[in-house]
Amino acid sequence: MRPFDYARADTTSDAATRAAAGATFLAGGTNLLDLMKLEVMAPEALVDVTRLDLHEVEATDESGLRIGALVTNSDLANHATVRAHYPVLSRALLSGATVQLRNKATTGGNLLQRTRCPYFYDTAAACNKRDPGTGCAAMEGRNRILAVLGASDHCIATHPSDMAVAMRALGARVVTEGPDGGRELDLGDLYRLPGDTPNIETVLSDGELITAVILPPPPAGAQSYVKVRDRASYAFALVSVAGVVAVEDGRITSANLAFGGLAPMPWRNEAVETALIGKAPSTETFDAAADILLADAKGHGDNDFKIPLARRTLRRALRELCERAA
Amino acid sequence: MDDTPRNADFDVALTMDAAQPPVLDRTVQGLLGTAMDRPDGPLKVTGTARYAAEALPENLVTGFLVRATITKGRVIGMKAEAVEAMPGVIRVMTGHPLLRNPAQGQAHQAPEQILPKVDYFGQPVALVVAETFEQARHAAQALVVTYEEEVAEVDPNAASQVDKPKASQLDQGDLEGAMRSSPVAIDTTYTTAPHSSAPMEPHASIAEWVDGRLQLRGSYQMLKHNVAELADSLGVDEARVRIHAPYVGGGFGSKLGIAPEAVAAAHAARELGRPVRVVMARDQVFEMTMRRTETTQRMRLACDADGLMTALAHEDRVSNLPGEAFSEPTAQGTHFLYGGANRRFTHEVARIHRPCAGSVRAPGEAVGMIALECAMDELAEAADIDPVELRIRNIPDTTPEGGQPYSERALERCLREGAERFGWSQRRGMAERLEGDWWVGMGVAAAVRTNMMEESIARVTLRPDGTALCETDMTDIGTGSYAILTQIVGEMLGLPREKVEVQIGDSDLPKSSGSGGSFGAQSCGSAVFLACQGVRKHLAERMEVAPDDLTLRDGRATGGNRQVALTDLVEAPMSAEGHVKPGETEDNFSIAGYGAHFAEVGVHRDTGEVRVHRMLGVFSIGRVLNMKTATSQCHGGMIWGIGSALTEEIMHDPRDGRIVNHNLAEYHIPVSLDVPQLDAMLLEDTRDDQANPIQAKGIGELGISGAAAAVGNAIRNACGVRVRDFPATPDKIFPHLPDVT
């Protein structure tokens, strides 16, 4: 770990100012501190935002929920409103990491955690995300956990979050504050696909701090989070599906689906959802949706299996959701 | 300890040339075999047991190892000056005596010291010493090393150098003929992934030279060998090395031999004249210590219409670095578990440049039994015979290759009692039981683990205050050595547990087998038993009775119509050494631990995820020394079995052999959710008189042997998918799942 300056921010604008001057935000530190120990990240300064007043979960005027960026994953998963009305989010959170990590990890930090691509963490491996221009060791390496959708020739990293997948299915919006004021954007618009700059992962500008996530009012229908992984707990998703599906008179009337483990960001494809609307639940219906989801999917050897596994996981999630929603 | 010459009159030596009487069945203290809590338990759960890295000698500095970032070649440059100019940095060291890899178990000499040569990606190439850990690590990361790189082979299947050790090849009868002429024959190949020991405590040493003698606080399993290996590595006399290892936070084979951090710390401490601490980072534990090799195992089995085996072939390929004598004895258990007159064994060692392969819990059986016991399941299916029954029918009367008799062997009983307890009769046909979205099925596998007893010495002293001291250089690697030695002494000398003090983990104490190969409890325990026999003899003389007429209980000696408190009988410390050696019984008998595993699993109909619902292991190991610690060993072994069946795999980069998943997030040892309630049952009434004078055999490794196969066989029964490439991750199952209509 390289020696660094540490400052604790008292106000959001103080944090933003320090970050705009080069400091890196520190919240739960569950990912950043590991990266610093390995010198994958070597910030010269940290600005600790944990004392900012961003720890509340509140109802919004629109009957949705405003989640402060510093609400821990544990608190959010166990929040009564989340458990009752956004169970997909609660389940996604509880499927991630371990109790100890969830007690520290925050909502904002979870959204901004880095990939778990093993080559990103090995400073003796080529990685365009860590060291732009060095290449991608994962492309022909051990890429079992890496992306089959949305990746590029420069990077096949996956976004590791479960929480963000559920939030994406729920249509969450992200609130930020920065040196130039604040904004609110769709969670899907927060992330950038790797293209030829995989080192740039979000649209956030220097100093821009996520202060909250806003959930719209609870959606109609059944909710579930299905996560397939290599062991029953404390493993990142091979494939995960966050789903909210409503069924009326034997037909699917609404479907919101997001996918984890497949792409550099929590993945959502509205054409998949459109293909389900108005259809009777059946394996054929589900497979037609999977065809759309996976039309452009590309494996890289070890992770080829994710493509058929995604189809099967979607089938499982939709079957369960439709049974419960009917 | 003191330096006054000992009276050796009561020392007892025994070479295991003949069956031994069950003395411990006649003692009356009632301590041995009970589920006594470990004496060290409270220290461990309160964090006050002091592990290797936790001492703070004055002037302590920290070293951090630097790894090679090429697979094969030479170090040709190192910008040491730049790093030595960094804050707090004291010295960069490279070259001799740094180790290429740890010593193999019981090597008793220095491992390869080849710098500036590099043989694998991750090999230690330097040690950076600084005032603080953070400074040392940062400097190590900053050190620029230049290499001359050579082409390296890292794929065991494509290796150009493949050794075929003569002693590991066997051709008996006519295998091909038997395969052709038998009504049922299978020819099947299994592969298993490389494994890591992944002990919770990383490899750690603090080295300090005091008056020209090295004092090393280390995390090691076999101190008498480790002293020799460390001394040889440093080029000093063994008398100038002392190792302290009172607590070891898990070893599983990875701490059998002296490892790079110890030699680096000792060398740096000698050069700098200050105590030096070197702790491996988690990724270094994966890269710089021992892995279990990957294996490819071709199995050919044939039987007649009644299921009696006619042919058995076990042909395997493993790998290791050039120059390493160790090769995974994959077929070890296959040689004597089942009959079959026509037999073939071939064993190949591919010489490749992946990190060093060595002993990992139950070397041989842990992975060899996966192939054998899954192949037995395939044979049972082909012959249409119940898998439990097929196994029982093929238990041989004498060993099928040497014709030796077996010592205590309760395999049939374990299989039958296990089947009854598990509800085996409820097992349905393949893919016949769909519960919700889960296919459910049961599997069975036999367990067998070769038993070893090793030379061991211990000293027991009965003191005038009525307490006893037991001294040996034995280690406790989390297994319960403190507990079982306390129990043996208490049982033999008639003392309650609180009157017995056990001192271990110091290489200056009498030399034991150390911990490894499941031989620690029986070998060291036998030495302690013999020492107690010596003390008993001394007491009998005092009581003026024959030793057999002496009864010791609760601190009182009874014999010749009188009862005397030990505090009145013992005027000066009574000390005796026990010394046990293996002898003819291990040549004249096939001695092993046996058992049976049963597993019930669910396989998800869509995704192929496997969940173990329940698991039973029934084991026979002769005398059980402590029901709680022995059962815990079984649980640990069964959990390893779940790991090797479903989750554990070291991933090597296909280009340079480096370990890609070198952390506990991506190397998937089973977590609580992967492990159901485990039922481990030990037969309590068995004794093995040929094994040793305490009639107890090893248990630590038996629990893993066969466990993964039971899971694999249960997967087959549940959903019809036969996994032959372990671990059975979802991608190996879902493409073959049956459709649900």
Automatic annotation (TrEMBL), chain A:
InterPro entries reported for this sequence: CO_DH_flav_C, CO_DH_flav_C_dom_sf, Diverse_Substr_Oxidored, FAD-bd_PCMH, FAD-bd_PCMH-like_sf, FAD-bd_PCMH_sub1, FAD-bd_PCMH_sub2, Mopterin_DH_FAD-bd
Pfam families: CO_deh_flav_C (PF03450), FAD_binding_5 (PF00941)
Alphabetical UniProt keywords: FAD, Flavoprotein, Oxidoreductase
GO MF term list: FAD binding; oxidoreductase activity
EC number: 1.3.7.9
Keyword presence, Oxidoreductase: yes
Domain FAD-binding PCMH-type span(s) in chain numbering: 1-220
Protein name per the record: 4-hydroxybenzoyl-CoA reductase subunit beta
Species lineage: Bacteria, Pseudomonadati, Pseudomonadota, Alphaproteobacteria, Rhodobacterales
From TrEMBL, chain B:
Aldehyde oxidase/xanthine dehydrogenase a/b hammerhead domain span: 46-151
E.C. number: 1.17.1.4
Pfam families assigned to the protein according to its UniProt record, in alphabetical order: Ald_Xan_dh_C, MoCoBD_1, MoCoBD_2
Keywords (A to Z) from UniProt: Oxidoreductase
SMART domains to which the protein is assigned, alphabetical: Ald_Xan_dh_C (SM01008)
Top EC group: oxidoreductase
GO MF: iron ion binding; xanthine dehydrogenase activity
The protein's name in its UniProt record: Xanthine dehydrogenase molybdenum-binding subunit
